[in-house]
Design brief:
The chain has 13 helices and 11 strands. By secondary structure, it is an alpha/beta fold. The chain starts with a helix and ends in an 8-residue tail after the last helix. It is about 50% helix and about 20% strand.
């Protein structure tokens, strides 16, 4: 039988990226964390962690982390069913999401559920592909990804298509694009990218202006809100979700840089295929709000 205090220690080291952070999360000493990890490795007769910076999991460690996440989620549902005052206990779900969903529609979709169920969210904000890797490795119980393919042991549901447009202040457009938007003017107009993993801007500029990746000046700002702020401040033009730009466009604070030019990202909800009423409720809340905010993938152009 597994000692779940020991399993929890291994999971915390992997989830929080180190022994010190895991100790803070579990409110025990770093020495205690190390002892629990070492004891479990001795009992299982195999290494569970690769002592790198940050620590990573061995194959056995990945399987253990997946098992821990599933058991933890099932326990939350069982507590609700068996404990009369379960509603007073806080429960936590670990999920992986992309920053644009987090900044626009995601929180409003689960607001009521979080309040009703005393639910806490442990959100890992990553690129859509990275979040899918986190689900595969057991770091999260569900994630938003651009991939429609289900991974082993998981279910997948289509959320919808998010549309992106380029926006800037009228003054910025007049300063940088007095004769219109083309590849030449874009080479001297600052824009914004999220990180080295962000390829959406490259896709947009290649698709509409045949501009090669990196052949343009760019701020790197790892925040969806910072994209909008940079545009509003006149620092750059930004590729942002249409739903995020709706209000400043309506007020005239921003204008579309190239009306009619859009790129899209199809989003899917992946989650572990386990019998958990709480996970099912969470998933349904996401799907219902996504249906209101996003374009259905099967009808999108």
């Amino acid at each position: 039988m597994l000692d779940y205090k020991l399993v929890e220690a291994v999971a915390a080291v992997l989830q929080y990226g180190g022994f010190e952070k895991a100790a803070l999360h579990l409110n025990i000493t770093q020495s205690a964390i190390s002892q629990r990890v070492r004891l479990l490795e001795e009992r299982m007769s195999c290494p569970l962690l690769i002592r790198s910076t940050p620590p990573s999991a061995t194959e056995a460690g990945l399987r253990l982390l997946q098992h821990y996440q599933q058991v933890h989620t099932l326990e939350l549902s069982l507590v609700d069913e068996l404990t009369p005052d379960a509603g007073s206990l806080f429960k936590t779900l670990s999920i992986g999401v992309n920053s644009d969903s987090l900044a626009t529609w995601l929180l409003s979709s689960v607001e009521a559920l979080c309040l009703q169920q005393q639910l806490l969210l442990d959100v890992q904000c990553e690129d859509e592909q990275i979040s899918l890797d986190m689900l595969r490795q057991g770091g999260v119980i569900g994630c938003i990804s651009s991939s429609p393919e289900a991974i082993q042991g998981c279910r997948v549901e289509a959320l919808g298509r998010m549309s992106y447009i380029t926006v800037a202040t009228p003054e910025y457009i007049q300063r940088h694009f007095p004769d219109g938007v083309d590849a030449k003017s874009l080479r001297s107009a600052p824009t914004v990218t999220f990180s080295i993993h962000d390829r959406l801007q490259d896709r947009y500029l290649q698709q509409y202006f045949s501009l090669p990746p990196g052949d343009y000046p760019s701020h790197q700002l790892p925040s969806t809100q910072a994209f909008l702020d940079a545009a509003l401040l006149g620092m750059a033009y930004s590729l942002v979700p249409r739903i995020q730009a709706a209000e400043p466009l309506q007020k005239g604070l921003l204008k579309e840089l190239a009306p009619g030019y859009e790129v899209h990202s199809d989003l899917y909800w992946h989650y572990w295929n386990i019998r958990s009423p709480l996970l099912e409720q969470f998933s349904q809340a996401l799907l219902q709000q996504a249906a209101k905010q996003l374009v259905p993938i099967d009808t999108a152009p």
